[in-house]
Design a protein that fits this description.
Largest sheet: 4 strands, antiparallel
Distance between the termini: 98 Å
Strand content: 15-25%
Number of strands: 4
Radius of gyration: 30 Å
Strand order of the largest sheet: 1-4-2-3
Order of helices and strands: HHEHEEHEH
Shape: globular
Helix content: 40-55%
Structural class: alpha+beta
Length: about 130
Amino acid sequence: MSVSSEPTATSAPTATSAPTAAPATVPPEPTATLEPTATSAPAVSEAHTGERAIVLTEDLHARPASALAQAAAAFTSAVTLSYGSRSVDVRSVLSLMGLGATNGQTVTLLATGDDAAEALTALTAVLGG
């Protein structure tokens, strides 16, 4: 009879092992702590946003698009150029040329980041505004 009580004792530690797997549900709690950090980040970027409308002095073909992209590369801010209903990243020469903006048309520069004001000033000068 003592032999049959030993297997019962062996199965008891197995039952104790099952509760060890339950703490695996604890990791979702740190995800909740990330939300406040994500909420505070957009407030900072809103403070460093600028927009400027510019009338082009020449067509936005390869040479001015390249000069604009090179000037934008010197800044950490994200800069987009809008013409009509389309907006493109200023760092992409092909995207700028694809807009088809021509002399006398109004385009809008939008910069978001720590150096947004400086980027707008430099890029406006490149566009001749």
